[in-house]
Automatic annotation (TrEMBL):
UniProt entry keywords in alphabetical sequence: ATP-binding, Lipid biosynthesis, Lipid metabolism, Lyase, Nucleotide-binding, Steroid biosynthesis, Steroid metabolism, Sterol biosynthesis, Sterol metabolism
An individual GO BP term: isopentenyl diphosphate biosynthetic process, mevalonate pathway
EC main group: lyase
Region annotated Disordered, chain positions: 51-72
Diphosphomevalonate decarboxylase-like N-terminal domain residues: 13-184
Name under which the protein is recorded: Diphosphomevalonate decarboxylase
Segments forming domain Mvd1 C-terminal: 198-350
Reaction(s) this enzyme catalyzes, per UniProt: (R)-5-diphosphomevalonate + ATP = isopentenyl diphosphate + ADP + phosphate + CO2
GO cellular component, one term: cytosol
């Protein structure tokens, strides 16, 4: 290779929003979870990270990562784990094929752009690490499957493993100490249930107060509700959720989604000191969903909240007017739903 040659590859990865939540690590270093989880991957055209990975003998010797134009620290163990694993796979390829350029020994330059607020409880780390891992895998021309890449992305951020697949995606907690069986799997492609929609209500685009990593560690250490959630409730609901998706049963999907969000936030409140992710506007959104469902006489809308106050409301396309329309009518004028403190955006699930 010439000393000025630049090798490059790009990809995008979408945000995923869990309907059965990941909360708790049995191994914080490898990001091995205390329970399995399940999410819906949003459409590529909506909330996503676009990442370009490149390497060149002409680059400065240190790896670098630029996110939305600002330089990020890549020395943390999570980013380092992803770089190390991907380089090791490239090295294996180079050893087996001596004619290949020795990219594994070159400095990496990663450039990422999110088209949504970073670290506002909108799963930015999920899309971010998924895109980072796939961009480098493409750059290195690795023969890795999405499952293999999910195993690597998980070490960047747990929820990132689910953004390597589209549609309805599970993350099997696994039991191996080395994390080899803690990977994502596709439950169904988006085309299986194309009527699914997600309305995202950005209550606050501010960075969250308690990081997921810190929050979940404190929950595991202090909540007495947590063991029942991790060992009994979630394993049962994972099976029920997979059936609901397979049968395109929105009532079951919606009820499980809302109950699991409530269960997750209950363990947050039961954490000591307590963790509050929901605020008054979040609770107003829950009330609106309840009113919509009461009026319909069945579950046609389902809320869920991650580690922040922003609501995601799932519904089917045929209920667009009732659900998205009512949210606009009822909450559009309220403080906290528009203006400087937040914007209201509507996003379709793929
Ligand atoms: C989820 N969350 O399943 C849950 C629901 C937040 C609430 O995954 O420490 O950023 O990087 O593995 O993946 C957020 O946790 O945590 C998360 P790390 P991550 O989507």
């Amino acid at each position: 290779m010439s000393s000025s040659e630049v090798y490059t590859a790009s990809t995008t990865a979408p945000v995923n929003i869990a309907v059965i939540k990941y909360w708790g690590k049995r191994d914080p270093k490898l990001n091995l979870p205390t329970n399995s989880s399940l999410s819906v991957t949003l459409a590529q055209s909506d909330l996503r990270t676009h990442t370009t990975a490149s390497c060149s003998p002409s680059y400065p010797p240190q790896d670098s990562l630029l996110l939305n134009g600002s330089e990020q620290d890549v020395s943390g163990p999570r980013t380092q784990a992803c770089f190390r694993e991907l380089r090791a796979l490239r090295k294996q390829l180079e050893d087996a094929n001596p004619e290949l350029p020795k990219l594994s020994s070159l400095p990496l330059k990663i450039v990422s752009e999110n088209n949504f607020p970073t670290a506002a409880g909108l799963a930015s780390s999920a899309a971010g690490f998924a895109a980072l891992v796939r961009a480098i895998a493409n750059l290195y021309e690795l023969p890795s499957s999405p499952t293999d890449l999910s195993r690597i992305a998980r070490q960047g951020s747990g929820s990132a493993c689910r953004s390597l697949f589209g549609g309805y995606v599970g993350w099997e907690q696994g039991s191996a100490a080395d994390g080899s069986d803690s990977v994502a799997f596709q439950v169904a492609p988006a085309s299986h249930w194309p009527q699914m929609r997600a309305l995202i209500l950005v209550v606050s685009a501010a960075k969250k107060g308690v990081s997921s990593t810190t929050g979940m560690q404190t929950t595991v250490a202090t909540s007495s509700l947590f063991p029942a959630r991790a060992n009994e409730t979630v394993p049962r609901r994972m099976k029920e959720m997979i059936s609901a998706i397979e049968n395109r049963d929105f009532e079951a999907f919606g009820k499980l989604t809302m109950m699991d969000s409530n269960s997750f936030h209950a363990t947050c409140l039961d954490t000591y000191p307590p963790i509050f992710y929901l605020n008054d506007v979040s609770r107003a959104a829950i009330k609106v969903v309840e009113a919509i469902n009461k009026k319909a006489g069945r579950i046609v809308a389902a809320y869920t909240f991650d580690a922040g106050p922003n609501a995601v409301v799932y519904y089917l396309e045929e209920r667009e007017k009732e659900v998205a329309g009512l949210f606009k009518a009822v909450l559009g004028e309220k403080d906290g739903w528009q203006g400087e403190r937040g914007e209201r955006v509507q996003r379709d699930a793929e």
